[in-house]
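Hey, resending since the last one bounced:
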Amino acid sequence: MDTRPLVKLPGDLFARCIDWGARSVLGYERGEKESSRQYARPGIDKSISKQALGKLAECAFCIYYNLDPDLLDWSPRLDRGWDCELFRVRVDVKGSDTEYLIWPVTKDWVPDNFNLFAQVQRLEENLFAIGGWCLRRNFFKRCHVAPPPDWLDPWTKHLHWTELRQDKITAETIEGLRWAARAIREGKVPEYIMGKWPC
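The structure tokens again:
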């Protein structure tokens, strides 16, 4: 049973995201985002819908967590590697038309400037499902590598939304993770215990 929370964006915010996607495509055409193009899958740099998807997903996440979408990076420059802050942790929101949290094969490096991944799926043009979240470190420890599924590019890292944490992120959850990380650093808790936690 699909129990994911659903979010529908207001019309003006949806239009703002589409406009941002169009400006992003224009930036690629002008040669302003060449360092980003090398990590993009073929054709994405020319698709307004695909460019807008990331911003739409970020906005859906913000609405679900009562964050102000104006705090997102709406500039045309390259993004900072993360999208928003929640309880003083940095979140990288991954939007997709699929049920998977995906780290594309074109990105052959592991980022260290954010703390959490959040997965958001576009169900309809303006309807999104909040799929779940996980620690960055746990994603790269537990992810699967395609294939399967066969439609993903080979070597793409992924987790299905059912493999992510489904509980809503709270200040208490984040504080518990901080406590565990401190305990591991101080040798009070074996690191393998952290690995037994769900994402």
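The helical segments are 11-29, 34-37, 48-64, 136-142, 171-185, 191-196.

Sorry for the duplicate.
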